[in-house]
Specification:
The chain has about 400 residues and is an alpha/beta fold. It folds into 3 domains: about 5-145, Beta Polymerase, domain 2 (2-Layer Sandwich), CATH 3.30.460.30; about 160-290, NAD(P)-binding Rossmann-like Domain (Rossmann fold, 3-Layer(aba) Sandwich), CATH 3.40.50.720; about 340-385. About 55% of the residues lie in helices and about 10% in strands. The protein is built from 13 helices and 10 strands. The chain has helices spanning about 15-20, 25-35, 60-70, 75-80, 85-100, 110-120, 130-145, 155-170, 185-195, 210-220, 230-235, 295-350, 355-390, and strands spanning about 5-10, 40-45, 50-55, 80-85, 175-180, 200-205, 220, 235-240, 260-265, 280-285. It has a 6-stranded parallel beta sheet with strand order 7-6-5-8-9-10, sandwiched between helices. It has a 4-stranded antiparallel beta sheet with strand order 2-3-1-4. β6, α10 and β7 (about 220) form a beta-alpha-beta unit. α5 crosses α12 and α12 packs across α13. The two termini are about 20 Å apart.
Length: about 400
């Protein structure tokens, strides 16, 4: 069956285009409705740098579903996004899962994001073939970390936040830091900053409980949105990482600033209006600006790419072999299992009224064990037949 991916990412489109494809709660509901008839289900992967839909179907089905969900024309998606099918689409999802397609090469967060997307999709009954593909990607990811240097060294968005702060300020231990948003991205950034000496951090979040949890975990201060203007005025470094659909910080928030500020916007859609960067004394960095990385770690990762390509080749080949094997074996196994069930059920019925219930239960257990052993013999025979077919091909 054909496998397809339709998506948009940082490689082809800037954040201003990518944020148009952000899937809020309502859009996700619509997308689910448009894709509910896709055989085998779909997997939707959404990060700050990409929105992608994978499925065992024709690509036009995914194109129509995504475009209808976010109310854009298909020509707009084709101009700014990409459509891949069959082997190209499968290799793409391997590369995404391993971090080879990330803005920060080898990003360690992408595999967790893929796992989250997979767990969400599993609720809607993914096919066995889809499950095997994702498990194969997880195996390839594990190999990429154990057999190469691809996952070693600090190269991540959270690390980049700290690097930018260290470059901008003489001593981050002396600056006041405001984190707006208590999600995973903000948490990772905070941990990196603290490990590099940051001491004065406050967090603001619309969910006060989530802010309290983060504040307690990292031993940082907590503030409220009612004090946002005060916190913005005092902060030297401002990090935004919320799920807001519109900018929460605009030029109006920065009138009469009395000291220079570094603002790092980690959100898509953007939390900070672009016009803010035109204000004197403010340096604004968004996701499109984060490109500098730890060069030593990056070079190691680049050198590992040929090995990773080979890992993908091997795991992809093994995945396809498992699918071919399943397609060969399953119809025969089902046939044998059906015949065994029919025979045993018929024979058990003959003695059901001739023995007591306890004896009959024992007969059922014995019959079940015999049936499983016979089925195992047939599976072994079918495996040998499949291997012979493969060798003769």
């Amino acid at each position: 069956m054909r496998f397809s991916v339709v998506g948009i990412s940082h490689w082809k489109s800037g954040v201003a285009i990518r944020e148009l494809f952000y899937l809020d709660k309502d859009r996700k509901k619509r997308l689910k409705q448009y894709t509910k008839q896709v055989p085998g289900g779909v997997l939707t992967l959404e990060t700050c740098n990409r929105t992608e839909i994978f499925g065992f179907c024709e690509p036009k089905i995914l194109i129509e579903a995504l475009c209808c969900s976010i109310d854009v024309d298909s020509s707009f998606l084709k101009e700014h996004g990409y459509v891949l099918s069959n082997d190209s689409a499968i290799r793409h999802i391997y590369r995404v899962g391993l971090g080879m397609d990330s803005q920060v090469l080898g990003d360690s967060q992408i595999i967790q994001q893929l796992k989250k997307a997979y767990n969400e999709s599993r609720k809607d009954q993914l096919s066995g073939e889809f499950h095997q593909l994702i498990q194969s990607i997880f195996k390839a990811h594990k190999r990429s970390r154990s057999e190469t240097d691809f996952g070693r060294g600090n190269v991540s968005v959270g690390f980049e936040v700290t690097q930018r702060a260290l470059e901008h300020f003489e001593n981050i231990g002396n600056i006041k830091i405001l984190l707006i948003g208590a999600g995973k991205m903000g948490k990772v950034s905070c941990k990196n900053l603290i490990s590099n000496g940051a001491k004065h951090i406050s967090v603001i979040n619309r969910s006060i409980n989530r802010a309290k949890n983060l504040a307690n975990l990292l031993d940082i201060n907590i503030s409220s949105f009612s004090k946002l203007e005060h916190e913005l005025h005092n902060a030297d470094l401002i990090i935004t990482a919320t799920g807001a659909l519109e900018p929460i910080l605009t030029p109006k928030n920065f009138t009469n600033i009395q000291k220079e500020k570094l603002i790092i916007d980690l959100s898509v859609p953007r939390n900070v209006a672009h016009e803010v960067c035109e204000i004197n004394g403010i340096t604004l960095i968004d996701m499109d600006s984060i490109s500098k990385v730890n060069q030593k770690a990056l070079e190691k990762r680049k050198k590992a790419i040929p090995i990773l390509e080979n890992i993908i080749h091997e795991e992809f080949k093994a995945y396809k072999n498992n699918i071919d094997r399943s397609r060969f074996l399953l119809p025969h196994i089902k046939e044998v299992d059906y015949k065994l069930n029919s025979i045993t059920e018929e024979e058990l019925q003959k003695v059901r009224n001739k023995v007591d219930p306890e004896t009959f239960n024992q007969l059922e257990k014995i019959t079940d064990r015999v049936k499983k052993k016979i089925l195992a013999v047939h599976i072994d025979r079918l495996n040998r037949e499949y291997q012979k077919v493969e060798q003769d091909a």
